[in-house]
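Late entry, adenosine-5'-diphosphate complex.
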Amino acid sequence: MRKKTIRDIQLQDKTVLMRVDFNVPMSEGQITDDNRIVQALPTIDYALEQGAKLVLFSHLGRIKTEADKEKNSLAPVAKRLSELLDKKVTFVSETRGPVLEEAVRNLKSGEIVMFENTRFEDLNDKAESKNNPELGKYWASLGDVFVNDAFGTAHRAHASNVGIANNIDTAVAGFLMEKEIRFIGGAVDNPERPFVAILGGAKVSDKISVIENLLTKADKILICGAMAYTFYKAKGYEVGLSKCEDDFVSFAKEMLEKAQGKLILPVDNLVTKEFSEDAEATLVSADSIPADQMGMDIGPRTLELFRKHLENAKTVVWNGPAGVFEFEKFAGGTKGICGILTGLEGATTIIGGGDSAAAAIKFGYKDKFTHISTGGGASLEYLEGKELPGIKAIHNKDCCCEDC
Ligand code: ADP
Ligand code: MG
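Prediction complete; structure with ligand written out below:
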């Protein structure tokens, strides 16, 4: 990997500025899922073991008015982190100024300061989100080195990621960021072949650039989820009441022509008369969706077809659930794909997509994939083949041969 990582630098007695993704779901001041905090622990532990004086920060939610501040304070996150680490975390309820500066100055090796939600700065003319140069420079001045472990914001050029990296001598990736670059970046740039992509989810329109990019990279693309019905329409099949984007039928047609057999569509579907868990479901083949019914999931023949195309795969990237997995009755396709992928021998299996990741975790496959991305929007843009500004800003290794 060409990007410098936390392993490449000395941390002993250094003031280490670490951007993490602590954008956890909250309800009435309580954290409802601390997975993002847990995921950041390896990088935090490593920095502390190496003798860093650690300054942690993150955004949380959106801050548009003063009133947004209270429910988006990082104070409960600092408390939870302290419990998880069994260690004091000094929380500074400011994003700049003498109190923060003194807390950072007083840090000793192995200690942690965490400061308030970086987006509180958005009340100053969107300073964080618009990457105000003065703000990035100011935060950079607080430390010696910068570690970016917040992949979830890598698709944004904000002051707390790009701004700091551009104003400090050393900017490296943390372990989480490194994993995302290695697996998602690696799959898109230089996959071990055969490389098969599975694309599903709600809409073709969300994933146009992913489809276009992966068509040039993957050996096969297996289509499922609601997006299959826009492709069906492009082939002239009746889609009934299925979710279908009429404005994108011509795009789907163009992709089918371009793909020359690389795009594989579902051959059977579970259909219902209404969008409901209790609706009676019938299995029909691709060209036989009744006019008064909608496709809710792929069927068993499709899973078998997908299994055949995946058998010899060495790299698989999956983005988008195969059906309305939120309803148990229509979770079979998504569960089936989890089962097939996690049973492949010698393949690198990667999930990049918020809902697909949530589904795989919900169905008990959390540790069975090679990599489940921690970023929804960021992984989507990475799969589109875009250079993410947060990653671009991390400094390159001094040796820049193609192999590292
Ligand atoms: P990801 O977050 O993994 O990229 P998306 O956001 O594109 O995935 O899509 C997820 C949503 O797609 C889920 O809420 C799921 O219910 C929906 N979906 C999947 N298949 C269908 C279908 N056949 N009809 C309607 N919605 C579907
Ligand atoms: Mg989604």
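The mean pLDDT is 96. Will revisit in the morning.
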